[in-house]
Input
Amino acid sequence: MNVGMTNLGFTVFENVLSRAECDSIAKAVHAAVRGRAGARNLMSNPTISTIANDERMLRLATNALGAPAVPFRATLFDKSAASNWHVLWHQDRVLPLLKRVHCVEWGPWSTKRGVLYALAPAWALERIVALRIHLDASSDTSGPLHVIPGSHKAGVMDATQISATVNDIEAFTCIVGHGGVLAMHPLLLHSSSKSTDNQPRRVVHVEYTDRFDFGNGLQLCVA
Output
C-alpha cells in the first residue's frame, strides 16, 4: 500500500493528466444536472467513466488499496466565486448501495437523486479510496481542501473527537496543480474554505473499491 496513504491518509500526484484531457472532462460535465456544489452520479457519463477506468487512475487506486481497484462513484465539485461554499471538518462515511438491508453497523439510510445511501462502518471504508482529479489548479484562495494528516487511523469519529483532533493536529492545505490527483482515505478528516478569487476550482471526485459485496446482502451501487 502507498506509504503516504498508510501514514498520512492522502498523497498528491502532480501532472497525471494533460491540459487537453482536463478540458475534455470539463466540457463533458458542463451540462450535467447540478446541485449547489456540483453534480452527482457521474459514472454514467461516458467521459467520466473512461477517465475513472483509465490505467493511470486504476494504478493509483490499486496502489492505495493494495488490491485491484474498481471505480463505483463519481462526483463533480465546482467551486467559484459564483458557486461558493464552506465545508466543516468531516469524514466521508456515506456509500451508495443497491438495496436497503437491516444491519446495526450500517445507517441511517437516505436517498439522493434516486440512489440509496447509508453511513458505513470503518471496516468497509478501509476498502475505499478517493481520487480527486483537479481540472483546475488550486490555490490558497480558491477554496482548497484542508486535511488532518493521519486522522484516518482513528477510525470513525463523533463530533467531540473530530473537534479534539482538529485542535490537536495542525491541518495541511492540499494545493494541487492543473491535472494533478489527490488520493485520500474516506476517514481522513477534511474541510474546505470558501473561494476568495474568481478562478474556478473544478474537481472530479472518483471513488474506488476492491470489493462490491460487503456481506449480508450489502452491495455497492455504481453511481
In short: Residues 3-89+129-206 form a domain with the Jelly Rolls fold (CATH 2.60.120.620). The mean pLDDT is 93. The chain has one domain: 3-89+129-206.
